[in-house]
Amino acid sequence: MRRFTLSTLRDFGMGSKIIENKINEECDFLLDKIKSYKGKPFENTMIMNGAVANIIVSILLGHRFDYQDPKFLRLMHLINESLRLLASPMVMMYNTFPMLCRWLPGGHRAVLQNSKELLDYIRETFPEHRESLDINDQRDLIETFFVKQQEEKSNNGLFFHNDNLMMLVTDLFAAGTETTSTTIRWSLLLMIKYPDIQKKVQEEIEKVIGLKQPQAEHRKMMPYTDAVIHEIQRFSNILPINLPHATTRDVTFRGYNLPKGTHVVPLLASVLREKSHFEKPDEFYPQHFLDSQGNFVKNEAFLPFSAGYSRTSPSMHLLKLYWISPLLLA
């Protein structure tokens, strides 16, 4: 399923100019929305969420929503509310000790209900996709899945069945929306707080991009901006405690024997604020990703998404598409 998803995302533009065009187009809608407030203060959470979600939706469902569409607002609410609950102390305890869920009350029940409503909406889109399906002109991920589903009939739908499709779309939709939107809002906050850094980023943007549309290929020519975006992800630390993982084989770690299947909860905050890897771990310091000549350098302790095999999951690849999004708002 991972192979199918990554292949389909590539077909619909991941890592190409197609997705860049989708991002640029959506950012035009976003900037028009921001301009409509005419300089007055406004709460930007739902707008940012909507812009990011629309880019993902265009790949999954083949269209975008208006920011005020009631159904779209409801879907955004379900995702935001679920993520808020998932970040609560009680649900984080359930993630660490899942066996407690069956006995103790808490937000996990609301998360399950929200997930059901989101899955129901995705299921409702299936008939329309089936009716308009053209095997030779697949417009989105759902239609591509249906083509594979037809090809797999001889296998009794072992992998390409509707339940897997609903979970796949939900994972891609929910995983990429809130985290990316939150990172962009952190970008705005930190650029306001550190105007000197903002000025350097702006100067680099004007020098390299000018009046052109931002493209991923500009990245290698913008080491300072690249370092700032990496430092935003490190400093904001929006996923301090990740979802439970499991060891894939027996392993010995620092004298402890961990059998295959042992649950492991990555504490990403402990890595992103590690003094041995970051000179000023508690400060916003883009030089963490620059060498003495001002060239961008990678840091092995930079793990803003997760650790382990999940880093190769489709949702993580979707998150990485948004390198150019903060540039459009600079």
Structural class label: mainly alpha
Q: In oligomeric terms, what are we looking at?
A: single chain
CATH architecture verdict: Orthogonal Bundle
| Helical run tally | 14
Q: SSE order in H/E notation? A: HHHHHHHHHHHEEEEHHH
State mean pLDDT (0 to 100 scale).
83
Which band does the percent of strand residues land in? under 5%
Which value, in Å, is the CA radius of gyration?
Answer: 21 Å
State the helicity in percent bands. 40-55%
| Total number of domains | 1
**CATH topology label:** Cytochrome p450
Biggest sheet layout:
2 strands, antiparallel
CATH class descriptor:
Mainly Alpha
CATH evolutionary superfamily? Cytochrome P450
Report low-confidence residues grouped into runs of 5 or more: none
In a few lines, what is going on in this structure?
54% of the residues lie in helices and 3% in strands.
Characterize the structure shown.
- This protein is mainly alpha-helical and 330 residues long.
- It has one domain: Cytochrome p450 (Orthogonal Bundle).
- The chain is 54% helix and 3% strand.
- It has 14 helices and four strands.
- The strands form two sheets. The protein has a two-stranded antiparallel ribbon. The protein has a two-stranded antiparallel ribbon with strand order 2-3.
- Strand 2 and strand 3 form a beta hairpin.
- Helix 3 runs antiparallel to helix 9 and helix 6 crosses helix 9.
- The longest helix is centred in the middle third of the chain and has 32 residues.
- The protein is globular.
